Amino acid sequence: MLRYTVKRLLNAVVILFVIITITWLLMQFLPGSPFNDQRLTEQARAQLEAKYGLNEPLLVQYTTYLWNVIQGDLGNSYFLNGRPVTAIILDRLPVSAFLGLQGIVAGTIGGIALGAISAMRHNTVWDRLSTLVSVLGISVPIFVLAPLLQYWIAFKWGLLPIAFFESWAHSVLPSLVLGIYVAAVVATYTRTEMLEVLNQDYVTLARSKGLGGFHVMTRHVLRNSMVPLITIIVPLAAALLTGTLVIERVFAIPGIGEQFVRSITVNDYSMIVGTTILFSIFFVTAYLVQDLLYGVVDPRIRVAGTRSG
Amino acid sequence: MSDRRMPTDIQRALRNAGLSRRGFLRVGGGGLAGAAFLGVSGCGVFGSEEEGSTDSEAPETMNRNLGAEIDDLDSATATDEISFEVLYNTMEGLYRLDPSEEPQPAQAEGVEVSEDELVYTFRLRDGITWSNGDLVTSRHFKFAWLRAMDPKVASQYSFILAEFVKGGAEYNAGKGSRDQVAIETPDDRTLQVTLVGPTPFFLGLTAFTTYLPQNEEFVGQQAADYAKGAANLLFNGPYKMTRYSPASGGTLEKNDRYWDKTNVDIERINMRIVKDTNTALTLYQSGEIDLTGLTGEQVPRFEDSPELFRTVNFTHFFGQMNQGNPAMANLNIRKALMTGFDRKLLTDRVLNDGSEPAYAFVPPGMEGPEGQTFREANGDLVEPDPAAARGLWEQGVRELGKAPKIVMLFSDSSTARDIATFIQAEYQKHLGIRADIDITTFENALDRVNNRDYQISFASGWGADYNDPMTFMQYFTSGSGFNRAGWSNDRYDKLVGGARKEPNNAKRMAMMLEAEKILFEEAVLVPEYFEAVVGLKKPYLKNFVSHPYGPEPDWKYARLDKQ
């Protein structure tokens, strides 16, 4: 297990290196430059490029950047008065991660419950109702759902704050919107998987041995339905922890997702690569966690080298 | 030895994790508990834990939506209007614009101007201080101005000083030295500046953000940290900043060391950042925000509301034609494109936000000859007659030998898309041509215009930096760094160049009036509209002053009457 983990970590470093290089190169092909103000004369542009080292040959720029990254320095933003990229990320990431985590946890639990009810009460009103809910949750886009819930729950009924991020109460509505989407996805998968497992011989056997319905459901059916769930939840979690543009915009939340999109539109090179590196780390870690979780849920999918450990 | 133990620990931990697979469902419960814990403990992620955060409900607090991040509070390098607003209200230059845009003595108590209008000797007020108690001295102005012109600081707005102050352009270009810039400080309260030419609007310029003072000693101490946070700044204006987060906004509090504090009414300004225009409107309606902007789509709902306010800015959106392109080099083709659409329809039906149709280059309201605005003096310069455009187009086609393909460059905002389809339809109707629309990001559009890689561009406009037609007229001069139309005209250059040196205001205005006419005889641009800023403000917010150019709004004059 340990050897496997170390190998995966080394792998991750190589993947990160490739991602940094590709992103950095692709950025050179981005149309425009960070300095594009209409009032920018040729002279002022040359001064700015000299200030940020953009007048150096590309190879020099690339190796300098890589060297700095190895030392943990992701460079300075071309905007925001030259603030360090790491400081901007540290300022905004916790906000997005908190919202994402809350949404993922609530959504997963809600989704499993919804899916389980659906599967256990297959072809009843409950099943249809929960299927309807999950279909709506998946198909209504967040940019429709978020303003809708904001208008009714926060503005009309005054139950929660409309926007901003100043207390836990402020985080409930945006997390709810995220959670609804997660729950809908999770419920669909849970339902399908459980229905399949329910038809397995060992379930029939367990039942015939006289085990209670709840026991069979939680111990046998639900657990054996977990594998595909992990496949979808883990990358989803990585995506949500790194922020969502729409939620952050609608609820005026200073998160990282919004910042990332802005940095792309204004060609803030160091911010783009810096955030990409961060997101890559999230995803690489997420997939590592995913592989380890498979083993936890289903002993048959033990990763190579586990037994020797 | 010891490093062999660590791995076994990890192994044990992993094995334990393996054991817990029986209770895998419990992980979910644990996660929920964890989230709840995070929620209760706050985990340091919530804005209210930032120092200096304030109660937005308080009757003496005004809540303002900035609409975008506060990028840069270093007055030497700031370029965006949000930072300008914060800087203008927390710091103060030698002069400040009054509610009717007349410059009034501010940090300076007065000025003496030499006979030839080249030497300005400012006398600072006695005892004016920074927010830390330091005296504001003439050296602080000199330091800030030189810093903004320093080629190493690479300020995008350096031109607004370098163009006017003698020796500035050379220093900024890296050709002259710092000592040759004609700013003298004979004593702590006297600042003497020598200008390149007579500049009747110079006092207004000293109100601009790039002209704000900086405390040399403090900037030196802060070094790279300067202006990164509220504690890394000093203030000498009506307000001081007590909280600053680029992402979530800031808080301004009345500066009790400000020389004119008795005339500042609002105690606290809570600056929020809401980018989504619908959310901003909802917050306004719920009373959480006292002032917010509106988009053209939102305006019709509030057409009759007494809370609606509107300012037509000194900002002109116009099409520019690249004369390096063979079709654009033809005068009749240019004239056809200039006159081939109905601007009134554009502002009334498409924009619908109070913007005014443009029939000339210089916006209405700007300074003009004695007793008149520039616009009143020169009138409309483009015939609002799209019907005649077809004849011009056909004439141009005959001259060229064949009908040219027209490609119009636009940026990718929703407004720009609406304008694009409108102009396309108008050209189809009046000229009988099918012009292509080329939409790209704003950044890329600017880049293409810079590189002259365009035919006709509607991607941008031009806003005044100061209240004088020169801020517009210089745009099309041959040597101008802003002229990307590739148009050059000796008579125009002579008139504008002459106006720059002419001390007599009536004469220089006459030169600029004539120069503006040349732009339309030559059909250099396609005027579109003068941009309006529209928004809603609560009735208890009074004396709201929003200048049509430069940094705005000015909160010094505003009054808050919350019951």
TrEMBL record, chain A:
Compartments in which it is found: Cell membrane
Entries under InterPro entries matching the protein: BPD_transp_1_N, MetI-like, MetI-like_sf
A Pfam family of this chain: BPD_transp_1_N
Domain ABC transmembrane type-1 stretches: 93-290
Keywords: Cell membrane, Membrane, Transmembrane, Transmembrane helix, Transport
SUPFAM superfamilies: MetI-like
Segments passing through the bilayer: 9-30, 97-117, 129-152, 172-190, 227-251, 271-297
Matches recorded under CDD domains: TM_PBP2 (cd06261)
Primary location recorded for the protein, binned into one broad class: membrane
Gene3D superfamilies hit by this protein: MetI-like
Signal peptide: none
Membrane topology: Multi-pass membrane protein
Family the UniProt entry places it in: Belongs to the binding-protein-dependent transport system permease family.
Protein name: ABC transporter permease
Automatic annotation (TrEMBL), chain B:
InterPro entries: Peptide/Ni-bd, SBP_5, SBP_5_dom, TAT_signal
Residue ranges occupied by any Solute-binding protein family domain in the UniProt entry: 102-482
Main localization of the protein described in the UniProt heading: other
Protein keywords: Signal, Transport
Alphabetical list of Pfam families matching this protein: SBP_bac_5
Location within or outside the cell: Cell envelope
Cell membrane among keywords: no
Source organism superkingdom: Bacteria
UniProt family annotation: Belongs to the bacterial solute-binding protein 5 family.
Protein name according to UniProt: Peptide ABC transporter substrate-binding protein
